[in-house]
Amino acid sequence: MSTSTVIRGGLVITASDETHADILMEDGRIAALAASHTPAAEALSAERTVDATGKYVIPGGVDAHTHMELPFGGTFASDTFETGTRAAAWGGTTTIVDFAVQSVGHGLREGLDAWHAKAEGNCAIDYAFHMIVSDVNEDTLKEMDLLVEEGVTSFKQFMAYPGVFYSDDGQILRAMQRSADNGGLIMMHAENGIAIDVLVEQALARGETDPRFHGEVRKALLEAEATHRAIRLAQVAGAPLYVVHVSATEAVAELARARDEGLPVFGETCPQYLFLSTDNLAEPDFEGAKYVCSTPLRPKEHQAALWRGLRTNDLQVVSTDHCPFCFSGQKELGRGDFSKIPNGLPGVENRMDLLHQAVLDGHISRRRWIEIACATPARMFGLYPKKGTIAPGADADVVIYDPAAEQVISADTHHMNVDYSAYEGKRVTGRVETVFSRGVPVVTDREYTGHAGHGVYTPRSTCQYLT
Ligand code: URP
Ligand code: ZN
Ligand code: ZN
Ligand code: ZN
Fold this sequence. Notes:
The protein has helices at 39-42, 81-90, 108-119, 138-150, 169-182, 193-205, 212-217, 220-237, 249-260, 271-275, 278-281, 302-312, 351-360, 366-380; strands at residues 4-13, 18-26, 29-35, 48-51, 56-59, 61-66, 71-72, 75-76, 93-101, 126-132, 154-158, 185-189, 241-243, 265-269, 317-318, 398-408, 427-437, 440-444, 447-448. By secondary structure, it is an alpha/beta fold. It has a domain at 60-380: Metal-dependent hydrolases (TIM Barrel), CATH 3.20.20. Helix 4 (138-150) runs parallel beside helix 5 (169-182), helix 5 crosses helix 8 and helix 8 packs parallel to helix 9. It starts with a strand and ends in a 19-residue tail after the last strand. Residues 67, 189, 245, 293-294, 321, 323, 343-344 line the site of N-(aminocarbonyl)-beta-alanine.
């Protein structure tokens, strides 16, 4: 395996620049960049040269929201760290930040250790962890400090899922106060789960059991209300806040208002909210179950607000919330009762391509594509500039992207361990050709050349987006 490679002639795109440059990768890092066809570029030499003429050369994607092997609704997300990170590599993502889970009655450390055991030695690309906090108490709060020190610097809390991951406002406030002190970042699942559970019960009592009712009971107003409440709790605590999987126009408006007030409040959306809608949830013969996730898919009209938020920086990140469940045997657990359909969609392999299509569709610029998919998630979660950009000293996580190749997204050809694609039949232009992870080719000319165990755990610093 060569330890040095030069990539020549591509258009190097970062969040800030587009330049025709040659890149020298040495010992896992970017060693040098030089404008193509100049003496400086010709002086770059390596054991291996790759021609990227006509291609984009972009930082590897940073997917800050995945759930490999997540236990949910009596089953487990169908991608393991091995299959899920391989699929991520195929899709041009070279870092994931997955969620370790604290179970109620157990400690954060115990949950984190369990997730390390699932991931270690199995990943094709580098990985890090957030911590899901399901049980705020004195011990948990102390453990938060220790986790921040060792590189788990963000904590997800849930205003939804009473009895499972749910935290009440007091628990949320206490965790936010702690994060204000220790530099951690609270990530919020903002939906009013107490109210939603009442609506679920009432819908089922009326015989409304189909998947589409999942979308109807999880109302946009209840996402907006929770988003508002999370923002004000964070303001009272003096803590920054990152709201995950934002899907509703009204929730974006809450974020925009808070940001106009100068609050350190951030928002993430996901490809499913940008490209899918309640039309998918309403597909007949229980097919709608394939699109059950929370927050839910919204009517198409919400998409414009999400795209606008991404352009105006009221939303900063697009992650996948990759949480796949097979239609057969897993989504089917909810036949006759939508509330028993495991929540989550596959997508870790599709994010970079879908967002490139969004560039072609005129929603975002090329640099904004890289910013929301690579640079900002790296900054937000303390991985920059090691991850998320192409610059001397950065990890050599580099993707050669063919902007003209056409593909049709399909479960027949994807690499995620799930029996359907949420984007089945969608035509997109642009495709990953070659992927380097710390200088090692893990995908080479559309062939998988990586291996489980190449990816390493990557501790993180605290949020760098504010500094
Ligand atoms: O439906 C979803 N989003 N499943 C994954 C868990 C979560 O809430 O992010
Ligand atoms: Zn969530
Ligand atoms: Zn999630
Ligand atoms: Zn290796």
